[in-house]
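ok trying again, last paste got cut off:
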Amino acid sequence: MDPIIRTEGISKEFSGVYVLKDISVAIEKGEIFGIIGENGAGKSTFIKILNGTFTPSKGRIFFEGRPVQIRDTSIAKGLGIATIPQEVNLVNTLKVYENILLGNELTKRFSLLNKKEMTRKVEELFRNLETEIDPQEKISNLSIAQKRMVEIAKAISQNPKVLIMDEPTESLTFHEINILFNLMKRLKERGVTIIYISHKLKEIKDICDRVMILRDGDFISLNKITEIDENEMAKRMVGRELNTIFPPKVIPKDEIVLKVEELTVDGLLHNISFNLRSGEVLGFAGLIGSGRTELAEAIIGVRKIDRGRIFIKGKECRINSPEDAIKYRIGYLSEDRQGIGILRNFDIKSNITLTSLPKYCYTLGLIDNRKEIEKAYYYRDTFEIRAHSIDTRLEFLSGGNQQKVSLAKTLDPEPEILILDEPTRGIDVGTKRDIYNFIHNLAMSGLSCILISSELEEIIGMANRVVVMHNGKITGILEGNKINEEEIMLYATGLKG
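nice, full thing came through this time. structure:
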């Protein structure tokens, strides 16, 4: 039997530089086919060639045994190829059901939209995903995790033959990931082929049948999942041995740098109280809708606080905007990289200095380009941002490299308190280790971090204490040997607290 997709010598170059080189692979019908590699390895480029976003510079594609030219996304859709993108790509002004069925609307007499039937179909999709999202809600009112579930529902609604998933579990919790994996298994039983990209090697091991490894655009290996373990995957991805991914935890000082008392945002957050010590990494865990991101947004002045107080180094302060937060030396890395984290049509240098531009200006307001360029090179080298130059626009960078630029932008105003919301989203295992070491070094220097993450391994490996939230409330603050997956999930689901 012919494979559903076969590539022969697929290559792609941009401005004379090959980012994908001579990839020949056969993907079988009804398998879950994993693709892994570091940022810039060529994973996203490969799937964008399959879904018609890019056309290959060289090589051929066969679909169900026939040669095809996938010149655009509509051709891919016609073949039965659907994609869940790494970055959310929804229309904020439309409702949930309108986004999911955009281009596939259901009609009744006189070509009028059958909104009732469209809503019913979307409700059925969400039941399969065990997700409580109102089909009538506007996309702009959803959290990042909810938007990701909408993207998943949108792709599944097309009844695809091939479903491409690019980092689909980013921002999802352990519970939501289990639901997604069960759905993937049901799709596989129906003969749907799934191409699965993830930086989470445990996920690859748990769900995939085979895994292809790319490095710097080159094919490295293709193995049955039973033939390779996570350590070997990581080694082949980065081309070297990886030591323990998490650094030792820094012992924080006794000084309290941030104190939050009974903070309340009506309808979202209820009597939130906690403190953050100098040099501490304070983890925040919880399921979708628990209020972790909303709490961060309240602290930095994005959301209006209805009741409660915030103290910084013992002094009460009022933070009404992100600009106020920066003045109080609070930095915030948003989970919404595309929305507010970066400007994709700006270059690396301009993004890094975006919130700290006054530091680079002369008295008359003119920008000191030399100083700005020096700092951009510093962050490029520190985070190993892969780009042709610091003048490269971010739309041409991989998701992981965009995240590194966003982190550099957050650090450039030199905060003393750093709030990191899903900081390693879309980052490969090697770079994760680098980021963790960098957070470790910041804590060693006395900087205090709030780490919001849906990856329990990350929370457990990095945090001195873990604040667990459920339905806008703190259900527990865990320390020592209480910081483990089982205990966190009991508090996150409301079974404890």
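cool. The first helix runs from residue 43 to 50. The chain has two domains: 5-238, 256-492.
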